[in-house]
Amino acid sequence: MAMQSKVEPYLLFEERNRIAEELHDRICPHLFGISCAVHSAEQDGGGMTDAEHLELLKDIREAAAAATRELRKTIYDLSLSEHGGNSWLSSVESLLASQAKLSGVRIRFRPPALDRRLTVHHQKALYRIIAEAIGNAIRHGESSVVDVKLTLRRSSATLRISDNGKGFEGCAARQGSGDSGFGLRNMKALAASLGGNLQIDSGEGSGTRIVVRLPLVDGRGEPV
C-alpha cells in the first residue's frame, strides 16, 4: 500500500502530461489557423467581397470543426498508433492543408515513397516538429511558401522543412524561439529523445531550412 501511494502521484503526473501533449499537438494548430484567418479578416476585411467573406467564414468553420473532432479523439483516448501509418500521414496532410487555407501560405508536402510503419513516438515527434515549424514559418518568418518533405528508409527517417521567409540570425536558432509553445530548442529535444538530431540553417532575408534525422534501428540493427 505504501508503494502504491508513492507510485500513484507519479502516474497521475505522467497522465496529465500525456493529455497536455495530446491537446497541444492535436488542437493548438487548428486554433492557430483560426487566429490567422480572423487576423486576416480584420486587416483586409474592407477590401474583401461578400463572396470572399463567406469563403473565409467557411474556412474558419471547417477549422473549428476539425479542432472539435480532434478534441473528441483526445477525450476518448484515440491515439495515432491505433490507426496506422497511412492515417498518420493523412493527419499531417490535413493539418498542412488547413494551415495553408487559413493563412494563405502555399505549403507543399512530399510524403515518403516507402510505406513503412513508424512507432507512435516517431509519429508524435515528427508531427509536433512539423506543426511547430509551419507555425514559426507563418507567424515569425512571414513566409509565402513552405516545403515539407519526409523520407523513410530502412534505418532512418529524414524530415526537411524549408521556407522563403525573412529568416533569422544563427544566434537566434541556437537560443530557440522564446515566444512559441514548442520553440526550436524543444524541437531539437524531441529529435534527441529518439536518438536523432535537428539542424537549422537560417539567415536574415534568406529563409529557414530545418533538417531532422531520426534513426529507426537501435545499435544492434533492430527496429525501434
TrEMBL record:
A cellular-component GO term for this protein: membrane
Family matches, as InterPro entries: HATPase_C_sf, HATPase_dom, His_kinase_dom, Sensor_HK_TwoCompSys, Sig_transdc_His_kin-like_C, Sig_transdc_His_kin_sub3_dim/P
Molecular function via GO: 4 iron, 4 sulfur cluster binding; ATP binding; metal ion binding; phosphorelay sensor kinase activity; protein dimerization activity
Span of domain Histidine kinase: 22-218
Family matches, as SMART domains: HATPase_c (SM00387)
Chief subcellular location: cytoplasm
Swiss-Prot/TrEMBL keywords: 4Fe-4S, ATP-binding, Cytoplasm, Iron, Iron-sulfur, Kinase, Metal-binding, Nucleotide-binding, Phosphoprotein, Transferase, Two-component regulatory system
Catalytic activity, as annotated: ATP + protein L-histidine = ADP + protein N-phospho-L-histidine
Enzyme Commission code(s) on record: 2.7.13.3
Entry's transmembrane regions: none
Enzyme class at the top of the EC tree: transferase
Location relative to the cell: Cytoplasm
Cofactor: [4Fe-4S] cluster
PROSITE patterns: HIS_KIN (PS50109)
Pfam family, one: HisKA_3
The UniProt record lists the keyword Metal-binding: yes
Function: Member of the two-component regulatory system NreB/NreC involved in the control of dissimilatory nitrate/nitrite reduction in response to oxygen. NreB functions as a direct oxygen sensor histidine kinase which is autophosphorylated, in the absence of oxygen, probably at the conserved histidine residue, and transfers its phosphate group probably to a conserved aspartate residue of NreC. NreB/NreC activates the expression of the nitrate (narGHJI) and nitrite (nir) reductase operons, as well as the putative nitrate transporter gene narT.
Protein name: Oxygen sensor histidine kinase NreB
UniProt organism field: Cohnella nanjingensis
